[in-house]
C-alpha cells in the first residue's frame, strides 16, 4: 500500500530548482564571501538527493543521464590542469593568474584561474557524493 | 496566461528597439504600454486578461493572512484555557480541485493555519484527510475551508 505523495513531488519540482540556483550562487560567491566549490558541490548533490527521495532511482537517471564517476574524473583533470598550467610559464606549481577583462554585458570583470580550480573541486564533490549515495541505494 | 505575459514582454522589448533606448526605464514603459494594448485586445484571447489572475493571487494571499491570524487566536485561547475541553477529529474533505499544484497549495494552506493539518491525500486525488484540533461541528469546518481557500484557489486557476 503506497501512499499518495503528490505534495512531496509537487514541492520537489519547485524547491530543487531553488537549491540548484543557490548552489551556483554559493560557488561564485566563494572568492570574497563564505562559500566556494566544496559547499556548492554539496548543495548541488543535496538537490539531486531530494529528487531521489521524491521520485525513484530510475526516474532520476532519466532526468540526469550522467555517469557520476566520469564527472569525478573530469573534475580532478580540470583541477590538475589548472594547477600545472603555471609550470609552462616558468612559474612554480599552483601559481594562479588573474586579470581584468572587458566583457560584453558584464563590463569590467576580474577573471581568476582559481575559479577553474574551484570548478574542478565542485565536480569532484558532486560526483563522489552521488556515487556513494547511489551505490548504497541500489543495494537490494 | 503564460502566452499573454510572454507577448507583453515581447512588446516591451519591441518598444525598446523602436525607441533605440536600451535601458530599464524604456523596458518598463514598453511593458506598461503593452499592458494597455493587451487590455484593449483582451477579448481576442480565449483566456481571461492576466491581471485578473494576478489580482486573484493577491486576494488569496490576504485571505490566508486573515485565516492565519484568526486561527492563531483560536489556538491561543485553547492553550490558555485551564480545562482542556477539545474534541479532536479526523474528517474527509471532498475537493473539486484537479491539478497537482492546486492540491499541494490547498494542503499547504490548510496545514499552515493552526488547528487543522492535512495527513493524507487519497489515490484518486478527490479526498483530503484532515486532522482538526477542536471540532464541535465537522460540516461547519468543511464549509469554512470550502468557502475560503478552495474558492480563492479556483478563482486563481480558472482560465
TrEMBL record, chain A:
Q: Report the locations given in the UniProt record.
A: Cell membrane
> Na+/H+ antiporter MnhB subunit-related protein domain: from which residue to which, for each copy?
7-131
Q: Does the keyword Cell membrane apply?
A: yes
The answer to whether keyword Membrane applies is yes
What broad class describes the main subcellular location of this protein? Answer: membrane
Membrane topology of this protein: Multi-pass membrane protein
Keywords associated with the record: Cell membrane, Membrane, Transmembrane, Transmembrane helix
**TM helices/strands, residue ranges:** 12-32, 38-55, 67-89, 109-133
Q: Which Pfam families match?
A: MnhB (PF04039)
List the record's Gene Ontology CC terms alphabetically. plasma membrane
**Recorded family membership:** Belongs to the CPA3 antiporters (TC 2.A.63) subunit B family.
Identify the NCBIfam families for this entry: PRK12573.1 (NF009223)
Task: List the protein's name.
Answer: Na(+)/H(+) antiporter subunit B
Q: Which organism is it from?
A: Pueribacillus theae
Automatic annotation (TrEMBL), chain B:
> How would you describe this protein's topology in the membrane?
Multi-pass membrane protein
Q: Which domain of life is it from?
A: Bacteria
InterPro entries per the UniProt record, alphabetical: Cation_antiport_E (IPR002758)
Name where it's found: Cell membrane
Manganese listed as a keyword: no
TM ranges: 7-34, 54-80
Q: Does the keyword rRNA-binding apply?
A: no
Q: Which Pfam families match?
A: MNHE (PF01899)
Keywords for the protein's UniProt record, in alphabetical order: Antiport, Cell membrane, Membrane, Transmembrane, Transmembrane helix, Transport
What does the entry list under GO cellular component?
plasma membrane
Gene Ontology molecular function terms on file: antiporter activity; monoatomic cation transmembrane transporter activity
Similarity section: Belongs to the CPA3 antiporters (TC 2.A.63) subunit E family.
Query: What PANTHER family does the entry give?
Result: NA(+)/H(+) ANTIPORTER SUBUNIT E1 (PTHR34584), NA(+)_H(+) ANTIPORTER SUBUNIT E1 (PTHR34584:SF1)
Question: Can you say what this protein is called?
Answer: Na+/H+ antiporter subunit E
Q: State the organism's lineage.
A: Bacteria, Bacillati, Bacillota, Bacilli, Bacillales
Amino acid at each position: 500500500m503506497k501512499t499518495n505523495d503528490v505534495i512531496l513531488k509537487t514541492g520537489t519540482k519547485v524547491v530543487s530548482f531553488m537549491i540548484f540556483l543557490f548552489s551556483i550562487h554559493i560557488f561564485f560567491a566563494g572568492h570574497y564571501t563564505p562559500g566556494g566549490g566544496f559547499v556548492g558541490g554539496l548543495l548541488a548533490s543535496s538537490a539531486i538527493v531530494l529528487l531521489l527521495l521524491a521520485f525513484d532511482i530510475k526516474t532520476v537517471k532519466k532526468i540526469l543521464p550522467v555517469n557520476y564517476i566520469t564527472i569525478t574524473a573530469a573534475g580532478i583533470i580540470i583541477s590538475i590542469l589548472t594547477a600545472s598550467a603555471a609550470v609552462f610559464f616558468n612559474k612554480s606549481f599552483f601559481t594562479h593568474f588573474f586579470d581584468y577583462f572587458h566583457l560584453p554585458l558584464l563590463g569590467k570583470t576580474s577573471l581568476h584561474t582559481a575559479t577553474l580550480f574551484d570548478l574542478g573541486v565542485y565536480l569532484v564533490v558532486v560526483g563522489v557524493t552521488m556515487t556513494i549515495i547511489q551505490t548504497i541505494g541500489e543495494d537490494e | 496566461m503564460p502566452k499573454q505575459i510572454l507577448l507583453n514582454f515581447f512588446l516591451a522589448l519591441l518598444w525598446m528597439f523602436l525607441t533605440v533606448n536600451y535601458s530599464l526605464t524604456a523596458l518598463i514603459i514598453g511593458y506598461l504600454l503593452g499592458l494597455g494594448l493587451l487590455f484593449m485586445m483582451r477579448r481576442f484571447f480565449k483566456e481571461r486578461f492576466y491581471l485578473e489572475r494576478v489580482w486573484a493571487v493577491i486576494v488569496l494571499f490576504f485571505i490566508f493572512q486573515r485565516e492565519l491570524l484568526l486561527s492563531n487566536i483560536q489556538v491561543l485561547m485553547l492553550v490558555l484555557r485551564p480545562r482542556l475541553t477539545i474534541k479532536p477529529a479526523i474528517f474527509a474533505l471532498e475537493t473539486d480541485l484537479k491539478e497537482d499544484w492546486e492540491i499541494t497549495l490547498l494542503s499547504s494552506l490548510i496545514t499552515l493555519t493552526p488547528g487543522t493539518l492535512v495527513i493524507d491525500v487519497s489515490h484518486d486525488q478527490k479526498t483530503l484527510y484532515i486532522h482538526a484540533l477542536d471540532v464541535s461541528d465537522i460540516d461547519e469546518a468543511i464549509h469554512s475551508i470550502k468557502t475560503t481557500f478552495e474558492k480563492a484557489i479556483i478563482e486563481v486557476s480558472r482560465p
